[in-house]
C-alpha cells in the first residue's frame, strides 16, 4: 500500500519523522539567530492585519528554510533509493504540507483581523462614535484580500491533490495487477484492486492532511489562546484555574475524543464485514450473467440475508454512536460561551476580543477533536486497510487475517 508509492525502505518513515523533528527544533531554537544573521527582523510585533501577515520577515525566512529542508531530504532519498514515484510521493507530499500550513496561516490572519473590525463595530454603535465608514470599508477590503488568497490556495491545492491521489492509486494498481495470480482467489479481488486502491489513497490523503492541519493549527493557535486566557479570570464551577481557556479547550476535547472512541469501537469490524458480504453477493450475480447454473434464487437469498443482517447490526451500532456524537457536537456549539458567561457579564472584554477568543477556542478545540471529527472516515479507512491487508498476506504467502475467514 505504501511501498508501491513511497520509497521501498524500512528507514523512509523513521527518516521522515526524524528530519521533521530536527527541522522543527532548529527553526524554533535558532530562527531568530538565523534571521538576524541575514539581516531580517524576527522580533515579535503587533499582528499585521491583511496580506502583510504573509510577507513579514519571519515568513520570508520560513519560505526559504522550508524549501531548503525539503530539497535536502529529497536529494538524499533520490540518491539512496530512487523510485518511479519519488517526485509525487516526496515533493508532492511536501507541497501538500506547505499548502496546509498556508491555509492555517490564513485562519490566523483572519483571527487577527477580527479584533480591530469588531471593536470598530462596537465603537461605531456607541454614542458619539468617531469611527468612519472609510475605516470599516478598509477593514472589509483587507478581509476580502485574505479571502481571495484562501480561495486561490484552496483551488490550486485541490487540483494538485486530485492528481496526487490518482498517482498513488496508479502505483498500487500496478503493483497488485502484477501480483494478480496470487490474489485473484481472495473474496472480491477485482473490487479491491479497482475500488479499494482509490478509496485507500483518497482517505489516507484526506486524513493525513487533516491530522497535519490539526497539529499546525495547534501550533498556531495555542499561543493565541494562552495569551487570550489573561482576559478570563475563572471558569464556572471550577473557579480559578491556570490559563482557563487553554485548560478548558484541552479538557473538553480529550473528553470528546475518549467518548467517541469508546462508543464507536465496534464500527471498523462491521464496516469491513459489510464490504465482504456485499462483495460475495455481487460476485454471485456477476457469475450468473454468464453461467445459468449460478445465481440461483436460494443462493442469492442466502447471500442477501448476510447483507441484511450485517446492515442491521451496522445501523444499530451507528444509532448509539450518532446519539453520542450529536450530543457532544451540539454541546460543543455553546461550550465556549458557557465558560465565558462570568467574563461577559462582568464586562471584562470587548466585542472584538470576544470574537478572537471564540475563534481561537474553536480552532484549538477542533484540532484536539481530530478523532471526533474524523471517526467515521477512520472507520472506513480501517475497513479498506483490512481488505488490502489480505492482498499483502496472499502476496507474501502468509495466513489470511482471521476476519477474512468468517462473516459472523
TrEMBL record:
Entries under Pfam families matching the protein: SbmA_BacA
Signal peptide annotation: none
UniProt keyword list: Membrane, Transmembrane, Transmembrane helix, Transport
This protein's record includes keyword Ribonucleoprotein: no
Source organism, top-level taxon: Bacteria
Segments crossing the lipid bilayer: 12-40, 60-80, 87-104, 146-166, 207-226, 246-267, 334-354
Subcellular location: Cell membrane
Topology in the lipid bilayer: Multi-pass membrane protein
Chief site of localization: membrane
Xref: PANTHER family: ATP-BINDING CASSETTE, SUB-FAMILY D MEMBER (PTHR11384), LYSOSOMAL COBALAMIN TRANSPORTER ABCD4 (PTHR11384:SF59)
Name the UniProt record assigns to this protein: Peptide antibiotic transporter SbmA
Higher taxonomy: Bacteria, Pseudomonadati, Pseudomonadota, Betaproteobacteria, Nitrosomonadales
Amino acid at each position: 500500500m505504501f511501498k508501491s508509492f513511497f520509497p521501498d525502505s524500512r528507514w523512509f518513515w523513521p527518516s521522515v519523522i526524524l528530519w521533521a523533528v530536527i527541522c522543527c527544533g532548529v527553526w524554533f531554537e535558532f530562527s531568530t539567530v538565523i534571521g538576524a544573521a541575514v539581516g531580517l527582523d524576527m522580533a515579535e510585533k503587533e499582528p499585521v492585519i491583511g496580506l502583510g501577515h504573509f510577507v513579514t520577515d519571519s515568513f520570508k525566512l520560513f519560505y526559504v528554510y522550508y524549501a531548503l529542508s525539503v530539497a535536502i531530504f529529497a536529494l538524499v532519498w533520490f540518491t539512496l533509493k530512487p523510485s518511479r514515484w519519488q517526485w509525487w510521493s516526496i515533493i508532492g507530499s511536501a507541497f501538500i504540507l506547505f499548502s496546509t500550513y498556508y491555509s492555517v496561516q490564513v485562519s490566523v490572519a483572519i483571527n487577527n483581523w477580527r479584533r480591530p473590525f469588531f471593536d470598530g463595530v462596537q465603537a461605531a454603535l456607541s454614542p458619539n462614535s468617531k469611527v468612519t465608514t472609510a475605516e470599516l470599508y478598509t477593514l472589509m477590503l483587507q478581509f476580502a484580500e485574505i479571502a481571495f488568497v484562501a480561495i486561490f490556495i484552496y483551488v490550486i491545492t485541490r487540483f494538485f491533490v486530485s492528481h496526487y491521489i490518482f498517482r498513488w492509486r496508479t502505483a498500487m494498481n500496478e503493483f497488485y495487477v502484477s501480483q494478480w495470480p496470487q490474489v485473484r482467489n481472495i473474496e472480491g479481488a477485482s473490487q479491491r484492486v479497482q475500488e479499494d486502491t482509490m478509496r485507500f489513497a483518497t482517505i489516507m490523503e484526506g486524513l493525513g492532511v487533516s491530522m497535519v492541519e490539526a497539529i499546525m493549527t495547534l501550533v498556531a493557535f495555542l499561543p493565541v489562546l494562552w495569551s487570550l486566557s489573561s482576559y478570563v479570570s475563572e471558569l464556572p464551577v471550577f473557579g480559578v484555574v491556570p490559563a482557563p481557556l487553554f485548560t478548558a479547550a484541552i479538557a473538553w476535547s480529550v473528553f470528546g475524543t475518549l467518548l467517541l472512541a469508546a462508543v464507536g469501537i465496534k464500527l471498523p469490524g462491521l464496516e469491513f464485514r459489510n464490504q465482504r458480504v456485499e462483495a460475495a453477493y455481487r460476485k454471485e450475480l456477476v457469475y450468473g450473467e454468464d453461467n445459468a447454473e449460478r445465481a440461483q434464487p436460494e443462493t442469492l437469498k442466502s447471500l442477501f440475508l448476510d447483507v441484511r443482517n450485517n446492515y442491521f447490526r451496522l445501523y444499530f451500532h451507528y444509532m448509539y454512536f450518532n446519539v453520542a456524537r450529536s450530543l457532544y457536537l451540539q454541546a460543543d456549539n455553546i461550550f465556549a460561551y458557557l465558560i465565558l458567561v462570568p467574563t461577559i457579564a462582568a464586562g471584562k472584554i470587548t466585542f472584538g476580543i470576544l470574537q478572537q477568543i471564540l475563534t481561537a477556542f474553536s480552532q484549538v478545540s477542533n484540532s484536539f477533536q481530530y478523532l471526533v471529527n474524523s471517526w467515521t472516515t477512520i472507520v472506513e479507512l480501517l475497513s479498506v486497510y483490512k481488505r488490502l491487508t489480505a492482498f499483502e498476506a496472499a502476496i507474501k504467502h502468509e495466513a489470511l487475517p482471521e476476519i477474512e475467514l468468517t462473516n459472523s
